[in-house]
Give the backbone structure.
Amino acid sequence: MGSGQSKSPAGASQHVFTSEAPIGFSQSLIESLRDTPESDSTRQKSQELTIQKRVQEELKRLQAQDSQRLKDIEEKIASEASDTRTAVQGQGHDAEAAGNKFRELSRDSIQEEIKNLRQRLEGRKKLESLDKEVEKARDAVTHCLRLNDRRPLDCWKEVDDFKREVAKLEKSFVEKTLQ
């Protein structure tokens, strides 16, 4: 790395390809390619400049569109603000009264929403209280886990009892549902 040149010298840019099949290029084409002052690098530079020019034009066009949209939005907001001011002044209220009115509307709508949510919550079915056996098994598991907080695996018997009671409860629920 670094011991050789990264670019070949200018005189070594000629490539010679040999082919088994005869290639038929006219002599005038070959001479025009040799005599053209344009090289790959100049063609690439001109293409790059063309692309940059197109990108700049597109950027200018997009910026003009954005600035026009911004002006339209500002005009719309200004007209709405002036309409609101004239409406508030026409009613004989100042801007503070209008703000209070909006606050009351929002407060009323929030209270109405809370009322609707409470009604929906009350309309839902209430949970039935658990059987005494399930509560007893749950309390036993809780008590055991509190006593054996460092060794929860010692409560396997209580957990089994609780699982059995829950299975009974599930079975009775399924039977009630199917009937």
Summary: The chain has a mean pLDDT of 79. Residues 40-90 form the longest helix (51 residues). Helices lie at 27-35, 40-90, 95-123, 132-147, 156-178. Residues 29 and 61 are 42 Å apart (CA to CA).
